[in-house]
Amino acid sequence: MKDLITVIAKALVDHPEEVRVAVVEKEDKIEYRLSVHPDDVGKVIGKQGKIAKSLRTVVTSAAVKETKRVAVEIVS
C-alpha cells in the first residue's frame, strides 16, 4: 500500500525525490502519512480536494482485504 501511495504521489508533484510515506499502525486503523515538498502540497490536494479524495478512494479500494481501516493523511 505504501508503494502505491508513493507511485501516485510522485507522478503528481514537481519534486518527486521529497515524497515520503510514513505508516502509523493503531489498534483498529492503519494510517499512511504522505509528506511532500511545501510547493507540491496543492498539487496533491487538488482543487477542492478532488485529487486527495481520489487518492483516498484508490487506497481504500485496494485495502479491501485488510482487516483494519485504512486512512491517508497529507502533511507538509
Automatic annotation (TrEMBL):
<dbReference type="GO" id="GO:0008360">
    <property type="term" value="P:regulation of cell shape"/>
</dbReference>
<keyword id="KW-0961">Cell wall biogenesis/degradation</keyword>
<keyword id="KW-0963">Cytoplasm</keyword>
<dbReference type="InterPro" id="IPR020627">
    <property type="entry name" value="KhpA"/>
</dbReference>
<dbReference type="InterPro" id="IPR009019">
    <property type="entry name" value="KH_sf_prok-type"/>
</dbReference>
<dbReference type="GO" id="GO:0005737">
    <property type="term" value="C:cytoplasm"/>
</dbReference>
<dbReference type="GO" id="GO:0071555">
    <property type="term" value="P:cell wall organization"/>
</dbReference>
<dbReference type="InterPro" id="IPR015946">
    <property type="entry name" value="KH_dom-like_a/b"/>
</dbReference>
<keyword id="KW-0694">RNA-binding</keyword>
<keyword id="KW-0143">Chaperone</keyword>
<protein>
    <recommendedName>
        <fullName>RNA-binding protein KhpA</fullName>
    </recommendedName>
</protein>
<dbReference type="GO" id="GO:0003723">
    <property type="term" value="F:RNA binding"/>
</dbReference>
<dbReference type="Pfam" id="PF13083">
    <property type="entry name" value="KH_KhpA-B"/>
</dbReference>
<comment type="function">
    <text>A probable RNA chaperone. Forms a complex with KhpB which binds to cellular RNA and controls its expression. Plays a role in peptidoglycan (PG) homeostasis and cell length regulation.</text>
</comment>
<comment type="subunit">
    <text>Forms a complex with KhpB.</text>
</comment>
<comment type="similarity">
    <text>Belongs to the KhpA RNA-binding protein family.</text>
</comment>
<dbReference type="GO" id="GO:0009252">
    <property type="term" value="P:peptidoglycan biosynthetic process"/>
</dbReference>
<keyword id="KW-0133">Cell shape</keyword>
